[in-house]
Amino acid sequence: MKEKAEPVQKLYTRMRLWEFPDEYVIEPTDGSSASSSLSISLVDASMKLSDSIPECSSFRVPKIQMIFGVVGMLKLVAGSYLFVITERKCVGSYLGHPIFKIISLKVLPCVHSVKNSTPEQKKLENEFSRLLKVAERTTGLYFSYDTNLTLSTQRLYDLGNESKMLPLWRQAEPRFLWNSYMLEALIDKKLDPYLLPVVQGRTRMWRRGADREGHVANFVETEQIIQINGFTSSFVQVRGSIPFLWEQIVDLTYKPKFEIVRPEQAPQIAERHFLDLRKMYGSVLAVDLLNKHGGEGRLSDMFSNAMQPIVSEDLRYLHFDFTKICGHVHFERLSFLYDQIADFLVKNGYFLLNEESEKMEQLGVVRTNCIDCLDRTNITQSMIARKILELQFRRIGVFAAEETISSHPKLDRCFRICEYCHFLF
What we know:
Layout: E1 15-19, E2 23-28, E3 37-41, E4 47-50, E5 63-67, E6 70-75, E7 80-94, E8 97-110, H1 119-136, E9 141-143, H2 153-157, H3 161-164, H4 168-171, H5 180-188, E10 199-200, E11 220-228, E12 231-239, E13 246-248, E14 258-260, H6 266-281, E15 283-288, H7 294-307, E16 315-319, H8 322-326, H9 334-348, E17 351-353, E18 359-360, E19 364-369, H10 375-396, H11 409-424
Parallel strand pairs: 12-19, 15-16, 15-19
Antiparallel strand pairs: 1-2, 1-5, 2-3, 3-4, 6-7, 7-8, 8-9, 9-10, 11-12, 12-17, 13-14, 17-18
């Protein structure tokens, strides 16, 4: 017989950081009588909970500041580093819960010494220290103290009651948990009220291609959510780099050449990638926006050839030469693409929940790519999002049968602003 899950202690939202010469002490200031302070030794980076704050003296004067979350800890060659949030900004709400953006991160060294390190270790530590400074400036990081940002609305709704009783970090989708590795040291110590899941929002272009397991670079899940008239509705799209081994070595040319690595493995890697997508999202429609010239053309041909053996009723591949058809300004020609994918979108739908908990589910996903999964992908996903939003509004009763977003200048302008923000973030 299973034990009944106990209610989870809420995450701490405000803490006082005491920086003593020999330890850091993090004191929750939420007002909970059950709150214990977290002490981190600067001798061996060990952690323990305490019900009191160490005494101060003229020889032991701490620096004190407010923090709003513990992001985690990293262990490097010369010691460990603690990541904390020193500034946050509320940027909106998700299903009624406040969402915060990290404005400022601080990296605090613990047990930092390179005295007994080899020259190679010192070199590595210097490089890591430089990267930590970069990490402090990482943008697009978001979190919530109350709800799981790593799951779509549909997956969040489908969580069982027992799963909903788990701490947020245990509910999290590993693919989108930005600080997964950094939380491990705190997880081992069972410090649940301090374990704050962080996600990185916005599109990105850090790497290209895939690994041998089919995990692609620049993989982003985009969700639009509506809450109106007692309805909650959402629609998910994904993007990701072309799913086989390829690279682009940066040189002094305007467009460096693309190199396909181990082309014979492309079909197997693509198959693994799309098998994972089908397990996660159901049916998949892969929309390839590459052009058919030069290096892009070779990549597109390789993608098309890799897809041929695995396409099925639940997995479609469609090439659409965005540059040739739309150029730089004729985005209205994306209607040609929509005509080819409308049947998939209608068949697989979107998530919809009413006040009586009656629901429709999204049964498949469109996966879009160009070279960097940026401009062409953004424009295409915005077109799809707009079409689905109109379908959602008609279903909910906000729009009549033939009504469109363009029929409402203010709504149209608002959507275009959101579309522009899509490019920025």
